[in-house]
Amino acid sequence: MFKLNLKIALRNLWKHKAYTFINITGLAIGMASCILIFIFIRYQLSFDDQFVNKDRIYRVVSNWESKGSVDASQGVPVPLSKAVRNDMPQFEKVAAIQSTGGVVLVRDEAGRTTFKEDTRIFYTQPEFFDIFDLTWLAGTSSIALTQPNSVVLSQDKATKYFGDWRKAMGKTIRFRNQMDLKVTGIFKEMPENSTLALNILVSYANYPYKDSDNWGSVGSSSECYVLLKKGVDIGSLDGALAQFNKKYYKNDTDGNRQFHAFQPLKDIHQNARYGNFSGKRMEKKEIYSLSIIGAFLLLTACINFINLATAQAVSRSKEVGIRKVMGSRRKQLVMQFLGETLTISIISVLIACVLTEFALPYMQNLFDEQISFSMLEHPVIFVFLIVLVLVVSFLAGLYPSLIMSGFSPALAIKNKMTASNAGGLGLRKILVVVQFTITIILIISTLVVLKQMNYMRQQPLGFNPDAVAVVGMPADSLSQLKYSSLKERLLKVPGISNLTFCDVPPSSNNIAESSFSLNGIKVKDFQVRKMYGDIDYFKTFDLKLIAGKLPYKSDTTNGYIVNQTFLKMSNIKTPEQALGKLLEVNGKKFPIVGIVKDFNDKSLRQAISPILISSQKNEYYNMAIKMDSKQMMTAMKQVDKIWNELFPNDVYGSAFLNDDLNSYYNTERVMGVLFRVFSGVIIFISFIGLFGLISFVASQRTREVAIRKVLGASNYELVRMLNGSFLLMVFLANLVAWPLAYIFVSKWLSEFAYRIPLSIWPFAIAMAISMTITFITVSLRSYKAAQTNPIDALKYE
User: Can you say whether residue 424 is alpha, beta or left, with left for phi > 0 and alpha for psi between -120 and 50 degrees?
Assistant: First the structure.
């Protein structure tokens, strides 16, 4: 029976080649898109799955609530880990980890430098290895970082530094030309899908601020991880956490408070609220959006199949009638038609796999991820393909099989079945409306996403990032003595107009915030973001002072510059009123000497922070160079040469500020590309289905068209007759899609502090596109039908 059904299925597919091609093309493209989306989402959701205790691992995070708004950071005060260890016995282990950057030098036995690089290291408490089960290749987790001046390396770092990781144990590396560290362990490198992109872990005993008791300062590089005891529910700690927050923070009764929370390890990678080390984040809302798009693609392809299958039902009515007369039961007919759908689905998924292999390199390049389509490596992909085939076969095949198997044999054999009683003409119209509703929603969403991205590119930032290069600087005191000489030599280079030493440029994700006092009164409403730069910081970045003056030239703090947001949040009405007020931060008390115009210090998703800027030479980790855009390349070669002459034991590294700012919106860039691609795919699937449907309708109405031509109807009238219902369906789809699209794009735009006003134009353009393409698609086929010689259609009557 199976062999017979398969033979009949293949015969019918070959007989109706055009409709088979349309069905397989639509399903294959829809399935390929779904497979690509699935393997990417699988990769994103697999982050941190490798850790045995993943369900018991949490990160402690910080929150500030003031005047109805909540700010957040993954950073915590330095003394927090010790306090959690002492006050919360519900945790089995607690470990602090502090990240910083600097140059690592590797020297041979004769003292010659064999390797150097500028990289990130992590000061790590030994308990970290009890929380995260790393795979040790040499050394043991119990003693690896228990002693000062010890370091553990990942396998790839050890190989890079010493040629063979097996030779690394007991060797020494030098950090920032200040600290010699002995290698006491080698661990297997973290997998690609790990939030913790760790390569160099240094004993926490070497952290300069390990004994700090300052609860008012929080940096994004200071993190704390905890391991919950077995059998303890994290929800049961709410009371203990409230007591902890109350003990260490004197929160007021006006809703202004600082507090900590526990973030599950599995939440870190997809949560935009708090940062992560890897930077390869795809937020939950983007994952949900991709899932919905995948479902839309599949639904659109299935609707095509249903429409064409039910439209073709009339031509197969005699076959069904004869089978019923010969004794076939309805169940057998349903299985036969489902078998045909399954055959098409299997062919489609095989083609989809080929398309996926072709598209995968482009997807890897877009996401900058090593995404795998290997079914041997990830069996869940094979399971997904089987489920995909079964779901598509069921969704696309069930309704047509029920319709065709339910034909009356008497009507079918007498050839009295019509399109209206053989396949639900009303349902086909509803499905077309649904299909085009999905298409129009995606067109509107794509237009809004692209417009928002263009808006962010053109939005004034409050400073000038053009032609500014940021060069990393050595942080040790000996190198700092050469800063003046470096600045003097670089300013003589043609094409360089300004230069400043600073910790970060005006906009940066490296955030350090601190509590403060204003005129002797501790401010509880908010914390202030600290930035450090020399006297030329404002000139280099074209920052505007609106009151006061710059502090006098100094290597240390002698006055503070604050921004307008600081004034608003401090309830200071005019800039002039702020001048002279004493600001105390981390024990340093100096007057406010100037007010800078607000500038965007983070991405445009976020509001401007309250900021203070001061000079502090030992905090200058970068040098920003303003250049003539026409001479940038030549000037940068000279910068490289002079920098290396002055700092031969360090590693030169530079980046253009505009490139760094563009990286803020990588997720939006990726989503913009995906919306364009998948909108195009859905439009293609929808309109090849529409073309197939109008082709079948035209063929079914051949005699009607011929009779109307004989009676005097013009080609224009015939085309209008065939076009009318399809244009009406697409118009109705627009009416349905508009409110749904409005809800979606409004919610998406609400994530941005700076966003475009939502106008009627994206909706009108989507209507124009959908109506125009429908008109062209249907008219081409309708005109061909209207041009047919009526004699050919009526000669047998």
Answer: left
Helix axes 330-367, 284-311, angle to 10 degrees: 140
Q: What is the DSSP letter of 533?
A: B
Q: Is the pLDDT of residue 413 over 60?
A: no
Measure the CA–CA gap between 523 and 256, rounded to whole angstroms.
10
CA distances for 676 relative to 32, 563, 669, 685, 758, angstroms:
16, 39, 11, 14, 19
DSSP symbols for 459-488? S--SS--TTEEEEE---SHHHHTTHHHHHH
Kindly tell me the sign of the dihedral angle through the C-alpha atoms of 159, 160, 163, 167: negative
120-143 pLDDT, tens digit per residue, is 899 999 999 999 999 999 988 888
Compute CA 567 distance to the chain's CA centroid, rounded to the nearest angstrom: 34
What CA–CA distances, in Å, run from 482 to 412, 448, 474, 535, 644?
A: 95, 50, 10, 17, 12
Per-residue pLDDT tens digits for 574-630: 999 999 999 998 888 999 999 999 999 888 878 888 999 999 988 898 999 999 988
90 within 8 A of 232, measured Cβ to Cβ: yes
Answer yes or no: are the C-beta atoms of 506 and 543 closer than 8 Å. Answer: yes
Q: Which amino acid is at 421?
A: N
The closest alpha carbon to 124, from 181, 43, 64, belongs to 181
For the chain, what is the mean pLDDT? Answer: 83
Whether 226 contacts 60, CB under 8 Å: yes
- How far apart are alpha carbons 748 and 550 in whole angstroms? 41
Domain ranges across the chain: 1-47+284-423, 55-268, 475-649
Residue 771 to residue 784: CA distance in whole angstroms: 20
Q: How far apart are CA 637 and CA 625, in angstroms?
A: 13
Sheet holding 654-656, edge to edge: 496-502, 622-627, 468-472, 654-656
Query: Is residue 265 within a helix (H) or strand (E), and if so which, with residue range?
Result: helix 265-268
State the Cα–Cα distance between residues 289 and 748, nearest whole angstrom: 10
pLDDT digit string, tens, across residues 513-554 = 888 889 888 887 788 999 999 999 999 999 999 999 988 888
DSSP structural state of residue 552: P
pLDDT higher at 383 or 706: 383
Give the per-residue pLDDT at 277.
Answer: 43
Task: From residue 47, give the alpha-carbon distance in Å to each of 224, 381, 402, 423.
Answer: 19, 17, 44, 47
β-pair partners for 65: 70, 257
CB atoms within 10 A of CB 494: 10
Per the listing, tokens 């006491």 go with 184
Contacts of residue 650, defined as CB under 8 A and 6 or more positions apart, other chains included, come to 103, 116, 118, 177, 474, 479
Predicted local confidence at residue 417, as pLDDT: 47
Of the candidates 283, 216, 271, 287, the one whose C-alpha atom is nearest the C-alpha of residue 74 is 271
User: Is residue 785 within 8 Å of 700, Cβ to Cβ?
Assistant: no
Q: Which helix (H) or strand (E) holds 300?
A: helix 284-311
Dmax (CA) of the chain: 104
Q: At what angle do helices 238-248 and 80-87 cross, to 10 degrees?
A: 130
- For 1-17, the pLDDT digits (tens) are 556 666 766 676 676 67
Closest CA to 510 of 470, 454, 566: 470
Instruction: Please identify which residue in the block is written with the tokens 């091609």.
Output: 21
